[in-house]
Amino acid sequence: MSASTPQVHIVDDDEAFRDSLVFLLESHDYAISCHASAEALLEDFQPRGAGCLIVDIRMPGMSGLELFDELSARHNPWPVIFITGHGDVPMAVQAVKRGAHDFLEKPFNQQALLNTVDSALALSQQQQASSAARDRFAECLASLTIREREVLDKVVEGKMNKVIADELGISIKTVEAHRGKMMDKMKVRSIADLVQAVMANR
Fold it and tell me: Which of 1, 87, 93, 100 shows a CA-CA span of 20 to 30 A to 199?
């Protein structure tokens, strides 16, 4: 299974229901993994790439809500969609307030499920891209020398080269040299790009 393929993990103790979801979702090119219980999922759940979970809120053993809490404690990055019966809707609403992506009440139509899965996967892909961007920014920042980092901070504050030179006790030419190297290492083409990158990662 490629990490670049959107992945959907189904957690439900009803085998017939799992099979029906697999049939529907595989026809839309998702990579599917099925688990008959929350405990089974937790044994080997290692989310990579973009994905989401479809979880029955009421199961024998660990419930869907208990699974959600455990995944949250493990900093699970994937959105969780709950499947509920009518009597479980209040619990599902509380789960959404605690961070679950959405819930679907049985019986639901196929398009409603597909729309919800698409929404969850779009969110997961967006979060994955943001995380990768933060990692790249951190790598660039770590590559700066102490002086280059000082120049970066003052440039972001909007200070001109002459002011930076006076505050750091160095020449304007030295500031310009540090500034040029800093911009190259941060992989930005303009001060506006630099400021946007710094603000996005604060």
Answer: 100
Q: For 193, phi and psi rounded to 5 degrees?
A: -65, -40
pLDDT one-digit tens code per residue, 109-145: 889 999 999 999 999 998 888 888 888 999 999 999 9
One-letter amino acid of 51: G
> Cα torsion at 182, 188, 189, 193 (round to 10°)?
-120
The tokens describing 21, both together, are 């979801």
76-111 in b/e burial notation, b at 16+ Cβ within 10 A?
bebbbbbbbeeebeebbeebeeeebbbbbeeeeeee
Task: Flag whether the pTM goes above 0.85.
Answer: no
Between vectors from CA 186 to CA 180 and to CA 189, what angle results, nearest 5°?
Answer: 65
**Residue 148 contacts residue 181 (beta carbons within 8 Å):** yes
What is the phi/psi pair of residue 59, to 5°?
-140, 155
Q: Which CATH architecture has domain 143-200?
A: Orthogonal Bundle (1.10)
**Long-range contact pairs involving 22-30 (C-beta distance under 8 Å, separation at least 24):** 24/110, 24/113, 24/114, 25/114, 25/117, 28/114, 29/5, 30/5, 30/6, 30/117, 30/121
Instruction: Confirm if 176 and 161 have CB atoms less than 8 A apart.
Output: yes
In angstroms, the CA 106 to CA 92 distance is 12
CB 62 within 8 A of CB 41: no
Report the DSSP beta bridge partners of residue 34. Answer: 10
- Topology annotation, domain 7-129: Rossmann fold (3.40.50)
